[in-house]
Predict the 3D structure of the following.
Amino acid sequence: MAFTKKQKGDMTAQYEKWLSDSQAIFVLDYTSMTMKEVEAFRAKARETGSAVHLVKNTLFTLALQSQGFTVPDFFEGTSLVGFAFSDPPALAKTFADFIKGTDTRRVKGGFLGKEVITDVQIKALAELPPLPVMRATLLCVISAPASKLVRTLVEPARSMAAVVKAYSEKAPVAA
């Protein structure tokens, strides 16, 4: 399908907007995928706060260059690009789950920030725990020393209260 120069300019501008808004970008070879599979994949990606789009390689390469990205050589053939707007590991996990058990689908590579990453690095990113779990773990690590300090400061008063209570229960009642 032939596009006019204006349509190509609009597409490139849209690609540039997606690139500037995303924290990570992953590229998938979608050879032999049906539109039903593509739509199901897009729905899973939307659940993670991301977007997946079929791109024109030449126009997308121009958008990458205009945004200051180093253009890798994996933009050949068919490209389905995922844009992680909020949680890159969640989108990486969606990509990893989608290609499991198939020989025809493969992750070509991607970008984390503006750094090029390989398919192996994307798989490693997919193995990270979800963002809420990471935040909870970090919160526990940060709050552990403060909790220990509070327990240490309160312990003498608690011990003293226990001694006074035991002494009061042991003492004879005055008539």
Notes: The mean pLDDT is 85. The first helix runs from residue 5 to 21.
